[in-house]
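Input record, target 12 of the design panel.
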């Protein structure tokens, strides 16, 4: 049985399928910092506040001095932010904050409503500050859309990685951000996700993996159960061979979940692939900007509630809150507990 359903070219915002709502890939070649966490470069020619230009290989996004996304609201879904390179400074209306990156993941359940900011501090002043991250939106089922917000950190030091060799002694690494992977008869299980997440129920088979293949490395994605959404995003390298197709970088493969898929890196450099998989929620989705509900009436209520309550208000000095010039990773939780990796 052929596994590949179709191939899809990728741009900045990647196509996703239920239970996933959205995936943005940020790949910015930021220059050295200016000592204030912004770029040591002119911002002329950019539409500050709405800069997605990738001019000179990077964008300011909604930031005016520091790249990123100042305070904005969410309701009804989760954000999973996987940072491969660089750092993100988080602050939210629960009173939680943190700096994470260089392999960390932040998982936030917006639930009934939260404001947060996500700034991209350029902490290095003597060298460049490359940033590479995915932000994945995972839907919440109707019975969990109004749960209390939740913020958690999945530190890179604790995130399981399978290190394998194929029959030709070529290397394969699989980082298990969510879900489980069978390795030599044992399940490699991800760190716990938030309690009200669709991913928290193993019967939903949610998986978020990052797959690294050395040159000429071969690996077979194992079959799972039927009728899951399963998509592979080739985001770095040159190309892979999948079944009888040559798949270049910046292409997604939508595949059948109950069929194995043999993959080989046939390019001249290492390849990286993101896997998103999960059982569809199969509920109506009504979305407007940062709110994702099931009906138009619920969306209208979300806007009304935000106007009335600001989802707890903003507790920080600045809407583009950052956390200092030292590249120290930490998480400050709403209960006052602080954690470092």
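The sequence produced for target 12 reads:
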């Amino acid at each position: 049985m052929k596994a590949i359903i179709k191939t899809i070219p990728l741009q900045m915002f990647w196509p996703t399928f239920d239970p996933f709502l959205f995936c943005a890939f940020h790949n910015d070649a930021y220059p050295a910092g200016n000592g204030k966490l912004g770029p040591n470069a002119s911002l002329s020619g950019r539409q500050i506040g709405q800069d997605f230009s990738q001019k000179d290989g990077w964008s300011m996004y909604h930031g005016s001095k520091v790249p990123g996304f100042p305070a904005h609201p969410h309701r009804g879904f989760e954000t999973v932010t996987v940072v491969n390179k660089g750092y993100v400074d988080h602050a939210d209306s629960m009173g939680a904050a943190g700096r994470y990156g260089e392999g960390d993941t932040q998982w936030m359940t917006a639930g009934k409503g939260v404001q947060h900011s996500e700034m991209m501090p350029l902490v290095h002043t003597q060298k460049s500050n490359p940033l590479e991250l995915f932000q994945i939106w995972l839907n919440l089922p109707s019975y969990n859309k109004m749960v209390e917000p939740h913020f958690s950190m999945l530190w890179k030091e604790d995130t399981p990685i399978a290190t394998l060799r194929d029959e030709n002694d070529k290397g394969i690494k699989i980082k298990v951000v969510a879900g489980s992977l069978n390795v030599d008869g044992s399940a490699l299980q991800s760190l716990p996700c938030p309690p009200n997440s669709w991913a928290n129920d193993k019967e939903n088979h949610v998986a978020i993996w990052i797959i690294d293949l050395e040159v000429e490395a071969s690996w077979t994605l194992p079959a799972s159960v039927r009728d899951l959404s399963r998509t592979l995003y080739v985001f770095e390298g040159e190309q892979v061979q999948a079944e009888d197709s040559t798949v270049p970088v910046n292409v997604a493969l939508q595949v059948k979940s109950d069929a194995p898929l043999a993959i080989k890196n046939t390019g001249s450099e290492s390849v990286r692939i993101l896997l998103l998989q999960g059982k569809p929620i199969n509920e109506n989705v009504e979305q407007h900007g940062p709110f994702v509900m099931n009906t138009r009436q619920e969306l209208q209520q979300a806007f009304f509630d935000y106007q009335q309550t600001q989802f707890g208000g903003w507790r920080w000095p600045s809407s583009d809150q950052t956390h200092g010039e030292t590249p120290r990773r930490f998480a400050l939780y709403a209960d006052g507990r602080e954690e470092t990796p």
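Helices lie at 296-309.
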